From TrEMBL:
Boundaries of every HTH merR-type domain copy: 2-71
Family matches, as InterPro entries: DNA-bd_dom_put_sf (IPR009061), MerR-type_HTH_dom (IPR000551), MerR_fam (IPR047057)
Entries under CDD domains matching the protein: HTH_MerR-like (cd00592)
Protein name according to UniProt: MerR family transcriptional regulator
Protein's organism: Amycolatopsis panacis
Any coiled-coil regions, as ranges: none
Length: 240
């Protein structure tokens, strides 16, 4: 018994357009034709069509299926596919965890859920900076940051009060207080002295992203205070 293209597609639960596409992509052989030009599909064509359909449902591309040469499940292709699926499942689980945390903390959607309890005191610039931090730092580092932001409201407020035209003595006073806080924080969380060591992926790209986020969040006086604080920290000249 033979089938037309429409009949073959119906048997396989697909469409005529898909059957023709599989022919074009070289994963389904063309059948013989009758004298009047109609295709005559046989059992082998139906089996191959069902096989290709099954493999595409697994996630294999048509080019990968074509390279397999008709074999149903070569180990290398399935191993690669299994690894890709595992990564997808892990990513979806992370998203679900983040959604659950966002619901529980009632955090705004424009900040990471773990910082939801701090949302009311965060400026739009802070939210942008934290979003960048969350994209480039490891989970443990982000949890450390949340702890520090909760504890250091005073030092953060000092820095935020520095206007772009702040006097040098104001900047220096804030820098000394910041240096004292930095010394204590670095002792608790050593990665703060070398943020690149806590990068989620590449060190160089993470350091660049962190630096840019801070630079765009702060005005010139605040950046000067941060730079001075780092100098005072190295020299041991900070408020205790």
């Amino acid at each position: 018994m033979t089938w037309s293209t429409r009949q073959l597609a119906e048997l396989a639960g697909t469409t005529v357009k898909t059957v023709r596409h599989y022919h074009d992509m070289g994963v389904l052989e063309l059948p013989e034709r009758t004298a009047n030009g109609y295709k005559q599909y046989r059992t082998a064509h139906l089996a191959r069509l069902l096989q290709v359909k099954r493999l595409t449902e697994f996630g294999l591309s048509l080019s990968e299926i074509r390279a397999m040469g008709g074999q149903e499940s070569p180990d290398d292709a399935l191993d690669r596919l299994d690894a890709e699926l595992a990564e997808t499942i892990e990513r979806l689980q992370r998203i679900r965890t983040e959604l659950a945390a966002t619901r529980a903390s009632q955090a705004p959607l424009d900040i990471p859920a773990r910082f939801g309890s701090l949302a009311e005191r965060l400026s739009p610039e802070d939210r942008v900076m934290l979003t960048v931090f969350s994209g480039v730092l490891q989970e443990t580092a982000l949890e450390d940051l949340r702890t520090l932001m909760t504890e250091h409201a005073g030092e953060d407020a000092d820095l935020d009060r520095l206007t772009v035209d702040a006097r040098d003595e104001e900047i220096e006073a804030v820098a000394r207080r910041l240096a004292g806080a930095m010394a204590r924080d670095h002792a608790r969380f050593p990665w703060l002295a070398d943020p690149g060591s806590a990068a989620l992926r590449g060190r160089a790209s993470a350091e660049a992203a962190l630096g840019n986020a801070v630079a765009e969040r702060c005005n010139a006086a605040q950046l000067k205070a941060l730079a001075l604080a780092k100098e005072y920290l190295k020299e041991g000249r900070q408020d205790r």
